[in-house]
Known about the structure:
- The chain is α/β, with parallel strands linked by helices.
- The chain has helices at residues 3-24, 79-85, 98-109, 123-130, 142-148, 158-168, 184-187, 189-192, 211-219, 238-248, 259-268, 272-277, 282-304, 306-311, 315-344, 347-357, 361-373, 376-386; strands at residues 33-39, 50-56, 61-64, 67-73, 91-94, 114-117, 139-140, 151-154, 177-180, 201-207, 224-232, 251-256.
- The strands form two sheets. A ten-stranded mixed beta sheet has the order 3-4-12-11-10-9-8-5-6-7, sandwiched between helices. Strands 1-2 form a two-stranded antiparallel ribbon.
- Strand 6, helix 4 and strand 7 (139-140) form a beta-alpha-beta unit.
- Helix 3 (98-109) runs parallel beside helix 9 (211-219) and helix 13 crosses helix 18.
- The chain is globular, with a radius of gyration of 23 Å.
- The protein binds NADP nicotinamide-adenine-dinucleotide phosphate.
- NADP nicotinamide-adenine-dinucleotide phosphate is lined by residues 95-100, 118-119, 122-124, 155-158, 160, 163-164, 181-182, 184, 206-207, 210-211, 313-317.
Amino acid sequence: MSSSLISRSTHAAVRNAARSARTVGVTSRSFVSLSKFTAVKKTPSSAQRVTSTQFTRGIKTLDFAGTKEVVYERSDWPLPKLQEFFKNDTLALIGYGSQGHGQGLNARDNGLNVIIGVRKDGESWKQALEDGWVPGETLFSIEEAIDRGTIIMNLLSDAAQSATWPTIAPLITKGKILYFSHGFSVVYKDDTHVVPPPDVDVILVAPKGSGRTVRTLFKEGRGINSSIAIWQDVTGKAKEKAIALGIAVGSGYLYETTFEREVYSDLYGERGVVLRKNGHTPSEAFNETVEEATQSLYPLIGAHGMDYMYAACSTTARRGALDWAPVFEKANLPIFEKLYQSVRDGTETRKSLEFNGRKTYREDLARELAEIDSQEIWRAGKVVRSLRPDYKGE
Ligand SMILES: NC(=O)c1ccc[n+]([C@@H]2O[C@H](COP(=O)([O-])OP(=O)(O)OC[C@H]3O[C@@H](n4cnc5c(N)ncnc54)[C@H](OP(=O)(O)O)[C@@H]3O)[C@@H](O)[C@H]2O)c1
C-alpha cells in the first residue's frame, strides 16, 4: 500500500471511528494519537512484511442494544508494547490446523517468538514446513515445543486435546500459561479428562471464524472479533495476558466471556434469540451467528466452495454441522415445499401485487423494517460493525 493510501485510509478510519463513537454512545473516548506500525517477522523475508495501520483511542465500554459490555481493541496494544510484553516468552502453538496456521503466522508477523509443535511427518508438519517453520528452530514435536514454550497454546483438534492430555499434562509446569481457543476441553472435563494443573494460568482466545479468516483479515490490516475468558488466574495477570495474546494472534476486538458461555454458544452457533434466552450477551449472540457467518464462513464459501469452508473449520465444528445438516433439512423441507407450491400456484405473485400495489406500500414496508431494525440482535450488530476499521457509517 502506498504511503498516501495508508494516510488517506488512516484518516478515514479515525473520522469513521469518531463518528461511530458518537453514534453508539461510547462511554469514554479520547483520540490521542495516530500511529503506523510495520510488523516484521523474525524470519527475515521482505515478502513476509505486514503493514498495519493503527490508531489509539480509549473505547472501553460499549452499549450493545441496552447491555453494556467491555471491549478490548488492538489499538490499545501497539506493536512495541506487544513485543515488550512478550519479550521473555516463547509462544508454543501445539497443532497446526486452521487456527494454528492463522494464529501462528499472525503472532510471528507481529514479531513474537513463536514455535510450532505437531506430530512429525503428519499433514500439519508438511503444512508448517510450507509456511516457513524450520525443524529444530521453530518446528518441533509436540512434547519438545511444550518443553521450550512459556505459553502453551493448545490448538490441536478438540478430540486430540483429550487424547494427548495424559502425555502433555505433566509437561505444563508451574510458570507456564495454558491457552485454548475453545472452552470444549476444560468445560467438558468429565468427558475429555482435561484438568489443567492448579498452578498455571488458563486462558481462552476464541476467534469468531476460521483460522483462514484470522489470517486474511490480519493481512488486510483488519482483525477478527474474538472472545476471551479466564478459567484459572494464579498470577493475577491472566486477563491481561489473554488480551495481549488475543491481539498477538490477530484479533481486532476482544469481547469478554466465560469458558462455558463460549463453548455453549460456539457448539450451538445458531439463532441469536435462543442464545440470549440462555444467558449469552448481545455481542456474543451476534458474533457467534451473523458476524461469523458473514465475515468468515460465507466469504470462504463464495471464494472457494462449501467443501473448502468445511475443511477450514475445526474438526468439532465440522462434525456438528455434518450431523445436524440432515436434521435441519428434514425439518425445513416441508416449509420449502410449501413455499415452492405457493410460488407455482400464484399465491406469491398475488401477495406481491397486492402489497406493492398499495398507495402506502413504502410506509407499510418501512414499518415492517423498523420492527427488524429495533430487534436487539441488529442493534447489537450496528455496534459490532461500527468497530471495523473500514466502517464508513450506515
Ligand atoms: N477452525 C475454526 O473455525 C475454529 C474457530 C475457533 C476456535 N477453534 C478451536 O481451535 C482449536 C484448533 O482447531 P483447528 O480447526 O485449528 O484444528 P483442527 O483441524 O480441529 O485440528 C488440527 C490439528 O490437530 C492435530 N491432531 C489431530 N489428531 C491428533 C492426534 N491424535 N495427535 C496429535 N495431533 C493431532 C492435527 O495434526 P495432524 O495434521 O498431524 O493430524 C492438526 O495439527 C480447537 O480447539 C477448535 O475448537 C477452531
